[in-house]
Amino acid sequence: MAVQVSESDQIKQFKEFLGTYNKVTENCFMDCVKDFTNREVKPEEVKMKHRWQPV
Questions:
Q1: What's in the keyword line of the UniProt record (predicted)?
Q2: Residues 24-43: tens digit of each pLDDT
Q3: Quick one: pLDDT at residue 44?
Q4: How far is CA 45 from CA 31, 36, 42, in A?
Q5: CA-CA distance, 33 to 47, in Å (whole number)?
Q6: With a threshold of 0.70, does the pTM exceed it?
Q7: Is 38 inside a domain boundary?
Q8: Which residue, 28, 27, 32, is CA-closest to 46?
Q9: Domain for residue 20, yes or no?
């Protein structure tokens, strides 16, 4: 038997998902990017991309 989830519960779950996604994205970005004085991507930033990017 399938459980019906109310629209308000679906919205709440989606907002929680977006909040979690935003926190993970911000943590990744803040961990990887240290310098905003240059348009070049530094080698250590590229390494971090590979660390966070799923295979």
A1: Chaperone, Disulfide bond, Membrane, Metal-binding, Mitochondrion, Mitochondrion inner membrane, Protein transport, Translocation, Transport, Zinc
A2: 889 888 888 888 888 888 88
A3: 84
A4: 9, 12, 5
A5: 11
A6: no
A7: yes
A8: 32
A9: yes
